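=== RUN LOG ===
request id: a7f3
mode: sequence -> structure
chains: 1
length: 182
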Amino acid sequence: MTYYKKLYREAWKLKGNPRELLLYSILRLKLPKAYELQLSGFGAGSSKMMYGSDGHEPDITVYFNQQLLCGIEVSGTFKPYEEIRKDGIWILPDKIKVASSWNHRYIYTFILEAEFPCGKWLFWLPGSSLKEIKGKPIEWYRRYQKRLIPERYLSTPASKWNTGVDTLLVYIKSMAEREMEL
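=== RESULT ===
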């Protein structure tokens, strides 16, 4: 098991996996049958991590009429909206690189657990918008065993993000409509 997987295993089991399953379930219930969703990232909906995963594949892959439509990365925090409004939404720089390679077909989502199911709990941006946001560099330290491990993020203004499941659904459906026109 890689150092990365060891470091994040517990946090992913406790928070990451439930967030992925939450968004997957909501999208599965709200999207018509022509859309197929697959849990595809780090652990793919299981309490075990996928062998060979580097942590950069989107967590949910969406297909429309059996054609790849987009990948959705799921992240989040326990912090309430008021803190996020002040501090910004933190993103790992590697995720922005991945977003660049998928462009508009990559959707980065950020769930505020403290606000679910009411209020502003889902923030999202397409990869093409994500790579254009100028983030402020932030360094934070994660405790791992007896050491503090530095992590580097980019803090982005919450006001620049789209919010809500309904707007995300509209975006996904509009991507499918564009595909049908081509």
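=== NOTES ===
Residues 3-30 form the longest helix (28 residues).
Strands lie at 35-39, 60-64, 67-77, 89-91, 106-112, 122-126, 136-144, 147-156, 162-163.
=== END ===
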